């Protein structure tokens, strides 16, 4: 089973996670750029592969497919240095990735969506305040966890770091200053020094 | 490594998921009931085990511990009938569990929190409207996926069903009617018929 095609978007942190891991692993696939704004079109294009019609969706050479960025990371990282094979440590990796979807992505990506992608920040002021409060709680949790370690789990770079890095490093686009999170900023630098690292946007 | 103690709350769907799987598996642990409302106290009690200070947290007989409900499900279900050992199908199980944290729990649990737990629905009317819209999208996705299957993945009851069941079956407490989701209601019945099923609240 070889991944051959990804339904992708350059501005999506969820898609970027998968692109970053694939770059580390030397996997290259055809990338189909999907508009994240046109929801109905997306349902038509992706619905049979992903009932939630979210991107990324990864297609394989046997016509099978897989949705949900963190599930894709977990699958592609099997038997690589980016995921321990110890079930207990692997559960901790997954734990951070569930935290990412529930506490970090849900707040930072949503605020970034309103502020930077849709440019409707003024209409969503109250909603933004709530997402900022909860997003800062998530960043505070991350900062605290990094107090005595270089990477999130088992002191090695893993898909947990890749997952949380994606939206954390663009948090300022959601109106989150990272000034009060020095350990998070150092960790961001550390991720960017990993072999095979690629930025979110393709270089021109 | 044997689970011995869980930091728990009867009203938390995230805790309930773990209690339900443990009941299926015949695992019993000491349950420490934690107030979900008193956040600061929770940080004091749980912070060293879970930097996000969320429940559930499961403690093992070697003093190790694990946070994040879906990560705990994944760990406890290893080598049981509640989780396939095929990596591709297992990634699909995880995919639904990430969907749960991002699209379902984040909306249904939050609405339920404001309406039923904190009883502050009137102050959060605009916020509720947004959570209801997104939560109904998640329920519509679930309904569509159940059109031609009995369980979420691989046509067998798994931790994906357990995970999504927890907040779906109490969605009405978050102001979500399930009237328009007949397949979801049938699936709820199906989950309740599984051997070892226990309800969310202990029977008096």
Short description:
Helix content of chain A is 50%, strand content 8%. With 204 residues, chain A is of the alpha+beta class. Chain A folds into two domains: 3-77, Glutaredoxin (3-Layer(aba) Sandwich); 87-192, Glutathione S-transferase Yfyf (Class Pi), Chain A, domain 2.
Protein topology:
The structure is a homodimer of 204-residue chains.
Chain A: E1 3-8, H1 13-25, E2 30-33, H2 39-46, E3 57-60, E4 65-67, H3 69-77, H4 87-117, H5 125-145, H6 159-168, H7 182-192
Parallel strand pairs in A: 1-2
Antiparallel strand pairs in A: 1-3, 3-4
Mean pLDDT of chain A: 95
- Which class of secondary structure composition applies to the elements of chain A? alpha+beta
> How many domains make up the coordinates of chain A?
2
Which chain pair has the greatest contact? Answer: A-B, 38 and 38 residues
> Treating each run of at least 4 consecutive H or I residues as one helix, how many helices of chain A?
7
Multimeric organization = homodimer
Distance between the termini of chain A: 32 Å
Shape of chain A: globular
Poorly predicted parts of chain A: none
| Radius of gyration over C-alpha positions of chain A, nearest whole angstrom | 17 Å
CATH class assignment of the largest domain in chain A:
Mainly Alpha
User: What fraction of the residues of chain A are assigned to beta strands by DSSP?
Assistant: 5-15%
**Biggest sheet: strand arrangement of chain A:** 2-1-3-4
- CATH topological fold name of the largest domain in chain A: Glutathione S-transferase Yfyf (Class Pi), Chain A, domain 2
| Main pleated-sheet profile of chain A | 4 strands, mixed
How would you spell out the order of helices and strands of chain A? Answer: EHEHEEHHHHH
């Amino acid at each position: 089973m070889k991944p051959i095609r990804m339904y992708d978007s350059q501005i999506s942190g969820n898609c970027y996670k998968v692109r970053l891991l694939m770059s580390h692993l030397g996997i290259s696939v055809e990338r189909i750029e999907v508009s994240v704004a046109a929801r109905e079109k997306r349902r038509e294009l992706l619905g049979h592969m992903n009932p939630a019609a979210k991107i990324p969706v990864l297609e394989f050479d046997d016509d099978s497919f897989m949705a949900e960025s963190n599930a894709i990371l977990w699958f592609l990282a099997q038997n690589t240095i980016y995921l321990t094979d110890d079930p207990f440590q692997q559960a901790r990796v997954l734990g951070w990735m569930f935290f990412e979807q529930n506490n970090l992505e849900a707040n930072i990506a949503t605020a970034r969506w309103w502020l930077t992608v849709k440019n409707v920040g003024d209409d969503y002021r109250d909603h933004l305040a709530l997402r900022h409060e909860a997003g800062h709680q998530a960043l505070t949790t991350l900062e605290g966890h990094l107090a005595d370690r270089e990477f999130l789990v088992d002191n090695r770079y893993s898909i947990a770091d890749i997952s949380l890095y994606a939206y954390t490093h663009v948090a300022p686009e959601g109106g989150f200053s990272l000034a009060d999170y020095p350990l998070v900023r150092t960790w961001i630098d550390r991720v960017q020094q990993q072999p095979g690292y690629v930025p979110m946007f393709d270089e021109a």
